[in-house]
Amino acid sequence: MTTRAARPVDPTGPLGPEELASQLRVMGIRPGDTVLVHASLRAVGRVRGGAGVVADSLLDVLGTDGTLVVYTQTPDNSDPSRWPVTRGCAVPVAEWPRLRATVPAFDAGRTPSFGVGVLPEEVRTRPGALRSSHPQSSFAALGPAAARITAGHDLNCHLGEESPLARLEELNARILLLGVGYSVCTAFHLAEYRVPGQGRRDYGCAVADGSGRRWHRYRDVDFDASDFPALGDSYEAQPERPVTRGGVGAADCRLFDLAPAVAYASKWLIEHRSRWRPVE
After folding, report:
1. Nearest 5 degrees, angle CA 191-CA 197-CA 199?
2. Quick check: helix, strand or coil at residue 160?
3. For residue 273, which of 26, 63, 164, 183 sits 20 to 30 Å off, Cα-Cα?
4. Which neighbouring-strand residues pair with 204?
5. Burial of 88 (C-beta count, 10 Å sphere; 0-12/13-18/19+)
6. How far, in Å, CA of 128 to CA of 132, rounded?
7. For the chain, what is the mean pLDDT?
8. β-sheet bridge partners, residue 34
9. pLDDT in tens, 89-122
């Protein structure tokens, strides 16, 4: 059954680390958990110390045996033909070859995340943080499970079986949607890989290897998050798959286990997506 954690008495006031940690515990985060966090700190409201205090509070609640994971995507490292989607701008076709030759190569240690808020950058840049090597869909992690989660992220696999999402599934990780909705729940993309007939598309990005910078082309799933909000609402309604809802600051939050959510999403997507492009 979907449960609702108690909302703080004054969710609009400035929060410090003690208040944040207390509210995260009320949400149900436990010492030793592995938690993938998608967050809008604007939704949380005023925090004394900003993103650093939010990260500190999460790590405090998780303890030394827990692992904090964030999505550090870099979709701006993409083919110029995709820039209306990945960068919000279009460029003339005649410019595409030149731009492919000048997009900076992905560097897991230095390339900033893009379009996912400030918390992923706070986590990614902390001492001891590890980051997976995918040039468009990387994850960063802090904690004892970080190496297992971030290792082996295949260059041709955004969010599938050879990505950190599959490792998080193996580790019985949990997902915290901190002031954001199901539309940004990356774990649902793992379910798309398990849908027969799921469409695929061409991707391109700049990578660096032992021989220097090169432009890498590959095919992977053609993602579609447009029905994720409906999927999430359906998931919440399942009594045997609990979702905890509650407040952290001013933010409406959700906490749930990743593996059963992905299993449910796979079945839901098969049932509700009626038209598919053939797999090539």
Report:
1. 80
2. coil
3. 164
4. 217
5. exposed
6. 13
7. 93
8. 67
9. 999 999 999 999 999 999 999 999 999 999 999 9
For 232, the token pair is 């999430």
Give 124: exposed, middle or buried? Use CB within 10 Å, 0-12, 13-18, 19+.
Answer: buried
Please state, in angstroms and rounded to a whole number, the distance separating the CA atoms of residues 186 and 75.
14
The SS3 assignment for 15 reads: strand
What integer is the mean pLDDT of 26-30? Answer: 96
Render pLDDT for 208-221 as a digit per residue (tens, 0 to 9): 987 889 999 999 99
What is the structure's pLDDT at 14? 85
Please list, residue by residue across 31-62, b when 16 or more beta carbons sit within 10 angstroms of its beta carbon and e when fewer do. eebbbbbbbbbebbbebeeebebbbbbbbbbb
Give how far the C-alpha of residue 236 lies from the chain's centroid of Cα atoms, to the nearest Å: 19
Which residue's structure tokens are 């030793």?
Answer: 32
The tokens describing 11, both together, are 């969710």
* Rounded distance between C-alpha atoms, residue 190 and residue 231, angstroms: 14
* Structural tokens at position 51: 């993103």
Spatial neighbors of 125 by CB under 8 A, at least 6 apart, are none
Nearest to 190 by CA among 230, 226, 221, 236: 221
For residue 13, what pLDDT band results from cuts at 50, 70 and 90?
Answer: low
| Percent of the chain that is helix, strand, coil (3-state, to 5) | 35, 20, 45
Euclidean distance between CA atoms 113 and 131, whole angstroms: 11
Q: Convert the pLDDT of each residue in 123-173 to its tens digit.
A: 999 999 999 999 999 999 999 999 999 999 999 999 999 999 999 999 999
